[in-house]
Each structure stands twice: as C-alpha cells, then as structure tokens.
Description:
The structure is a single chain. This protein has helices spanning 19-24, 41-46, 53-61, 114-122, 132-165, 174-204, 212-276, and strands spanning 2-5, 12-13, 29-35, 67-71, 74-85, 88-100, 104-109. By secondary structure, it is α+β, with helices and mostly antiparallel strands. Helix 6 (174-204) runs antiparallel to helix 7. The radius of gyration is 32 Å and the shape is elongated. The termini are far apart.
Amino acid sequence: WAFRFVPGEAPQAIEQFNISSIESDETAWYWLHLTTAHEQARPMIKSCRLLPEDAIESLIDQDGGLRFDVEGETIYGALADFERDLSGRTNETGKLFFALNKRIMISLRRHALFSTDRVRRQFNYGQVPQSPLELLELIFTQFAQAATKELSNLSDILDDIEDRVLQPEINDDRILLAPIRRTSARLHRHFLAMRLSLARFEKLQMALPENFDEVAGNLVRELEALDHDAVLVQDRARLLQDEMAAKTNAAINDNLRIISVLTALLMPPTLISGIFGMNVKDLPFLETQSGFWF
C-alpha cells in the first residue's frame, strides 16, 4: 500500500503512483509499503532519488541482520516483527526492511507482518503519525506490545507447568517447554541485536537526524525491558526442564532400585532351578518319589 500524509489532514491512500510524482511533491510525505514478491518493487526502489545509495541497496539486497544505520538525514535498516496469517498474529517472526527521511518512508517485507498492518488500520481511528520517524516508532510500539503479550502468554504457560511439576506425580511436560524456549530465545536475539545497534550511536557520538536521538533512547529502554522479560522466560523454562529431568531420573532410579532388589531375591531360586534343570546322572532326587516337590 501507499499513503500520502499532509499535516492536519487524514492520510490519503494512493491506488496508483510513481516515484517522480512523489519526489516533486514537497507539501507532503509518503509511506510506501512493498512486498518482495511484487515484480515492480525493486525497480521502484532503485528509481527513488530521495534516498541515498546505501539505503536503497539495503532495501534491495535484504542482507545482514536486525540493525539501524544512519547516513545524513536518512535512517535505514531492519526491524523484527511478528508474521500474520488469516487468523491474525502468529508467534513466528520476520524482518521489516525500511529506509526513511523527512520526505518518505519505504518499508519492504517478505511475509505478511503484524505491526505494519496494525498501524495502517489505526489510521481509521485517528492515530496518524506526523513524520516518517514517528511512523517508525509506531510500528516498533506495535511490535513491542505484541512481544509483551507473547511473553506474558509464555509466562502463563510456565506457571501451569510449574504447578504440575511441583505435584508428587510425574508429569512430563518437556514437549511443551521446547517451543517456549525456542520462542523466548529467538525474541532475546532480536531484542539484543536491535538494542546493540541503537546503543552504538551513543558510543560513536554520531551526528543523528533530528529527533532520532530521543527516539533511539526510547527504543533502547523499551528493548531493555523486553529483553529482560525474554531472558526471564528463557531461564524459567530451562530451570523447569532441568527439574523435570531430575524428577524423572529420580523416578527411574527408584524403579531400578526395586528391580535390583527383585533380582537379588531371585538369584538363589534361579541358581537352584538352573542346577536341577541339567538332567545329568547323580542329580539329587532324580529317582526319588516326589523329588520334584522336594
């Protein structure tokens, strides 16, 4: 989709457009959201003269991980986002490649994403960004809210598993812990990559676009909180998995102890029955009446 934003007016959806008309319009800014499956996406991006060459290459090549880069007044890179299907948000994550400045924001995705669609829908309810940078912050906010909800759901599942683990009976819920650890570990990697990418701007003391330092600070604080929750869920899942394994091993050891006692008790009868089963000459009770019962 494509939207045209004019201060004080509702966003205008654009059905047909070309880059040259956007470049000549200095009274508004634009959001172009494209999919890599569209054959015109890459030629359209290449023809955009509002973005520097490195930002265009980043959108087209889609290489590297999650990151934020700055060149002059342009911010570009890749954000994490949840994928969506016909039923809504899933727990799988994808990448949203973006490049923006004061005039335009171009976002590119491979799979249908959740946060961008939510932001687009909220235009109908009056939540309209005033700049491309604010639009990027809104997209990240939607992702952060969805990640918080996902981590909360995982934590609730861990609570139920923990209640069952603390019961005397053995409940093997390790099959439920595997996807929890996978999701929390993946989110932790995403949060850490984006947080480190934003934190390096402060370390390098780079000249940043207007208002981006404040936005970057807000994103870093949000990512730190999300990363803390993801690590907490991951550690809880690991501890519960270890406790289940210890509980299962203890039960196995108890069974082995019983089997060992029974084996020791059955050794004398086994030895006797083995001797008397040889059927050789001079075997005691061989010719004796009721020898079997003796």
